[in-house]
């Protein structure tokens, strides 16, 4: 008997997975390989890659989505050059926000799944930079935000997944977030979902850390992902 989630269209579906900040394609804390295995066993193709300056990829700087968007678009092009494919993006934390940015520009993407994504980089950094820098909010946060664009050549205001979801709609997005995420508050996903709740989906879990929902509920998580893919 076929899995109820197995794609039946002649054109295959490829799921491109994007990891989080300072991580790699393996996302060992998730663990991404276990999720990828379930997706592949359901009949989908899976592509996992390392962002620039991560894992086995070259590069000396991470821009938290600004340039990483081009990495996701490059992954989509790589898939399409080898075999025409329907595309779904799955991203974790920074990878989720970056997947939204890429999908807003690439119509070949039929849907997006994000786990613990932030909605806007600039206000997120303003509120949460002490969590990552481990420095007191004052005077370091305003100083870092002033120096950052000149130092690494990015404009944090352009990493705006909240605005990007409007360009994805009416294509679907599944937002996954733990209410107890202390690194990126779940209100980030809620805010993006609320832009188009008629098409977008939001699954809020409990008692999981940042990108920790799969580890807490692997079967439920996998079922949500496969059910979403089956509707594309």
Strand order within the widest beta sheet: 2-1-3-4-5-6
Bin the helical content.
Answer: 40-55%
- Low-confidence parts: none
* Secondary-structure element string: EHEHEHEHHHEHEHH
Measured between the Cα atoms of the first and last residue, the distance is 21 Å
- Indicate the structural class: alpha/beta
The global form is globular
Beta-strand percent range: 15-25%
Largest sheet: 6 strands, parallel
Q: Report the radius of gyration as a whole number of Å.
A: 17 Å
Number of helices: 9
Q: What is the typical, i.e. mean, pLDDT?
A: 90
* Number of E-state strands: 6
What are the defining features of this structure?
232 residues, alpha/beta, 6 strands
Describe this structure in words.
The protein is α/β, with parallel strands linked by helices. 42% of the residues lie in helices and 15% in strands. α3 packs across α6 (161-168). The protein is globular and about 55 Å long.
């Amino acid at each position: 008997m076929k899995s109820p989630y197995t794609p039946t269209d002649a054109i295959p579906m490829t799921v491109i997975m994007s990891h989080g900040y300072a991580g790699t394609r393996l996302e060992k804390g998730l663990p991404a390989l276990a999720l990828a295995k379930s997706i592949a066993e359901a009949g989908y193709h899976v592509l996992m890659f390392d962002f620039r300056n991560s894992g086995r990829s070259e590069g000396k700087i991470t821009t938290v989505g600004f340039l990483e968007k081009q990495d996701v678009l490059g992954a989509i092009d790589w898939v399409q050059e080898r075999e025409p494919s329907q595309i779904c993006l799955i991203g974790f934390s920074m990878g989720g926000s970056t997947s939204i940015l890429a999908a807003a520009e690439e119509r070949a993407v039929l849907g997006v799944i994000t786990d613990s994504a932030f909605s806007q980089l600039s206000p997120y950094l303003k509120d949460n930079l002490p969590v990552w820098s481990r420095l007191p909010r004052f005077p370091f946060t305003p100083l870092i935000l002033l120096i950052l664009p000149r130092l690494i050549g990015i404009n944090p205001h352009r990493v705006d997944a909240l605005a990007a979801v409007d360009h994805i709609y009416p294509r679907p997005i599944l937002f996954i977030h733990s209410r107890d995420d202390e690194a990126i508050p779940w209100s980030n996903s809620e805010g993006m979902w609320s832009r188009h709740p008629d098409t977008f989906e939001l699954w809020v879990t409990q008692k999981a850390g940042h990108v920790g929902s799969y580890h807490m509920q692997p079967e439920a998580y996998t079922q949500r992902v496969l059910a979403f893919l089956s509707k594309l």
